[in-house]
Amino acid sequence: MLCGMFDFTKRKFLSLPIERQHKKCAELIRFLYEQKVEKKEREKLLGVYQTLQDWMDGNLLVLDDSKSLVNQFHLHLKKAKMSLKEWNLLPVITHQDRDVVLEEPGSIAIYLDSIRSAFNVGSIIRTVEAFSLGSLYFSPETPCVEHSQVQKTAMGTSEWVTCFKDIPLTDLPKPIIALETSPCAISIYDFVFPEVFSLVLGNEEYGCSEATLKQADFLLQIPLCGRKNSLNVANAFAIAAGEIRRQKKLRIHHDEE
Question: Which of 86, 128, 135, 136 could bridge across to 162 with cysteines, CB 3.0–4.6 Å?
Fold first, then answer.
């Protein structure tokens, strides 16, 4: 049954454009890598792959470990001229995900103020989950977790992060801290983050809205020393998240002493 999914005659397979041939090989490797199949069925699928390689005048490789599969997978993607998007990575060997979290999510509220890019939103969701920070709140203009591109970029983490739509910033925990490039903003490295607060991330083009800035109790910035005085919002958040996590760890260590 499984081998039938990749059942080609030599004539049919070689009639495909070379890019399509490599794409089919990549699909077979992804199936081998991700699906739990019995040893006998796995050996059959590996045999199918070796046959396809033989037809393509490729090298007959011994794919006996995950690293070999990954290397071949990316070789086929390259020759198929497929763009390498992050969700095309083979997940298990890349990330070595855990079955349980090391720490329950915190009580921080992260508010996305008119962020437009689904890629940025997905990346932010992934960072929130990785650091177990807390919950996400979406302004009406921000693509939410139902968006397919958000889900792809979040790489499965959206189901582990609590997300809310259309809840006003005024309803979120105080103090309200805005991550913003401003002459009067405090460096994130000079600021002591409280245990409970709301962190606002602004629009990719103009940052936080005027209405949001008026509600903010603190403005924070990431000190930069290059010519460009800004960062992608998802990258900036990742840096801030790392600092928040570092301070939390120090606080826990101090309390234990």
Answer: 135
